[in-house]
Amino acid sequence: MATPPAGKRADARRNHDRLLAEARTAFAQNGADASLEDVARRAGVGIGTLYRHFPNRHALLSAIFADAVSDLLNLSRELLDDPQPCTALVAWLRAVITHASEYRGLARALMSASHDDASALARCSDPMHEAGSALLTRAQRAGDVRPGVSIGDLLQLTNAIALAAEETPGDPELTDRLLTLTLRGLKA
Q: Are 188 and 149 in contact (CB under 8 A)?
């Protein structure tokens, strides 16, 4: 779980932790566009306290998803030893899609943040780009993925697939179909 900077008073740490817990609940129930005022109210603090801890929505989303990003980074390191580089890349991309699908609206937020280097979500995506690049490079060196493919494009595609699945809840196979179609286009 994301923690406030060292040296914070105990009450500030408690507020920080309550805000994260309530934001997780609110985002799970209402999506990534849930009311921040509602998050603050549910945490028992004012909106100013929320903004002192998290200056904007992307900073709050980034803090909430730090654990999931850590899990994705660990998975990428494990997959670097997979004897089938393309299979490893696909497994990681599936995990990224699952993560982006966790909260309604997250895929859209991740897509918009990729164009805003100042966004907290964009800053947390740098390690994701590095992790994905290592997997992609292995698949390209193995001749499984054509050379011109970039990890930035792949991550945008995974977010787009997650967004499409979010918008089409009645089609549970859509994610796999779109990912398969995408991967066929990546083949060397």
A: no
